[in-house]
Please model this.
Amino acid sequence: MVEIQSQTPADAIALPEMGCGTWAWGNRLLWGYTPDMDVQLQAVFNHCVDQGVTLFDTGDSYGTGRLNGRSESLLGEFANAYKGTNEHKICLATKLAAYPWRLTRNSMVKACQASAARLSRNVDIAQLHWSTANYAPWQEGALLDGLADLYERRLVKGIGLSNFGPRRLQKIYPKFRDRGIPITLLQVQYSLLSTYPVTELGIKDVCDEFGIRLIAYSPLALGILTGKYQVGKKLPSGLRGFLFRQLLPGVQPILNTLMAIARYREKTLAQVALNWCICKGFIPIPGAKTVAQAQQNTGALGWRLDGGEILELDNAVSQSDKQMVQNIFQTR
Ligand SMILES: NC(=O)c1ccc[n+]([C@@H]2O[C@H](COP(=O)([O-])OP(=O)(O)OC[C@H]3O[C@@H](n4cnc5c(N)ncnc54)[C@H](OP(=O)(O)O)[C@@H]3O)[C@@H](O)[C@H]2O)c1
Model:
């Protein structure tokens, strides 16, 4: 186990406008990862940091089969090798899984130490990957206490949550407030194809009230919002292909509107989709498997859609009869 160095408190964290997701790094099953992608992934990492995209999201459950933990170990390797002006702004945020065998507050501390060992450096932000409220509500208290302990013991710079809805957040928030511990961020699935956390749940208002930054995960709807997957053309294999076949026919109004704005703006669909998340007050964390994708995604920065364009996209969302399925752990 590596010794975690004592860290500075949450106000030392400067979150960028956009981050980078690393779920695909080490995931063969859904994302077709193979180790020969590692050189490319290091270049993705370097490009992001150079462009100020210094927040990286990973998880201790990421990596399939014997590649479990691979996302964290690759991320640590890349971060430790990186030399450049933004080197000291790199912020590695991992998600600690609410596994059924994690029952005590100390299990969160141990999990964070294991993540730090894979990263070969400190975890900057530790997040609880999901709420157990939907199936084992009695488990959650200890895990949240452990998350707070990580901050209080200065083992991390900040803490966060994932897949919590506003009602649940309001319920657990006093636990942190009463110990004087800020919650830095909350991530939910948010994109033009997943507006549910805001429009149905109202998560934004509650996070604003509590001073919590919102992260948009899967902001490209697993790739659909790039426009490269179309009805009747080659789709990814496995679960993503299955999902896309269900979704694509119903989401044309969104893709058509994205395309029209992208053409007018001389941007790509992905850039417009990510910019929309930023305009809605979220930090999107798109996944990227190649430097070309990362370059395109960082092109979402440095400009803003205007009010009329945002309205057009919002109208297209209401005209579409399909949305992404929500994470089964998302609470209300
Ligand atoms: N908290 C949670 O429960 C949770 C759940 C899911 C994800 N996340 C986090 O959110 C991150 C991002 O979400 P995600 O990876 O699920 O989905 P995403 O960001 O919506 O989509 C990423 C995928 O889209 C394709 N892509 C990305 N940029 C592209 C571009 N410019 N042009 C064309 N294709 C492009 C790539 O796949 P292809 O090249 O294969 O199409 C890429 O892997 C994850 O990596 C993870 O860190 C968190």
Residues 23 and 62 are 6 Å apart (CA to CA). The chain has a mean pLDDT of 95. The radius of gyration is 19 Å.
